[in-house]
Amino acid sequence: MVASLRSRWLGQQMRDLRDDRGLTLRYVAVQVGFEYADVKAFEHGERVLHHAQVTALLDAYGVYEQRVRDRLLSLARDAFRLSRWEDDFYAPDLDVSMLDNLWLESIAERVSCYGATLVPDLLRVSGYVEAVVHRDFGPAVVEEQVRWWVRAIRDRQERFDGEPAGLRVVVTESVLHRPVGGNGDAARLQLAHLGKAADRGQMRVLPSRAAYVSGMDASFTVFGLPQPYPRTVASTSHVHDAAVHEGQAAQSYASVFDKLWAAALPASESAALITELM
């Protein structure tokens, strides 16, 4: 089993609760009737426990503050299974890292995306999504799966409809010119959508004349997370999986994004450039 970020973070928080109370793993295992090896593996993120089992541990640690219990039990449910993404018949078999990426996006207070080659998911229109899916998966993909991707990406975008300040996107100027397939209307609608995002202050275009910034070669996303999670986590996506970066690596990506945001055209100039291409 590949340990997910969700299970590792849950295990770490539960281990901290146990350590704060001076309890040993063996004592806890006996008290709640679990195998010692299972509790140890759980704290290392290598085993996922059911909701009822995590509840039993919280009771053993005397954690009764409702806000804390609700947060940890919610994380336990998410570590066990992300039903939103895993229970749809037409959903692809998403890699653990991709599921972690989706989860991070759902809890983040701010999401900052840099698109070096393509428009990031959170600003794609349906026609653009369809074209990219057909290119990524080839002739084997069925239309039900294409529709799943369109629906899934739109669902992810909805949370930012009412809170535009929670999303910042930088795309290179070359992204605006890059054909991905589909018909001409899809390209026009995608540009129009980017123009509206620029008008809202969500998106900027990094012009071709901009000086090189170390780290700008590939697309990435930076997540600003609420407490008690790490303040900054980043991810780099590939075709069918993603890599999650924590600690200093995440801070480096955040620094690169801030430099790219500053180097990009202001919102009004970005919108004007997009309008010229339509």
TrEMBL record:
Residues 102-276 form the DUF5753 domain. GO terms for molecular function: DNA binding. This is Transcriptional regulator. It comes from the Bacteria. CDD domains: HTH_XRE. InterPro entries: Cro/C1-type_HTH, DUF5753, Lambda_DNA-bd_dom_sf. It holds the Pfam family DUF5753. It comes from Phytohabitans rumicis.
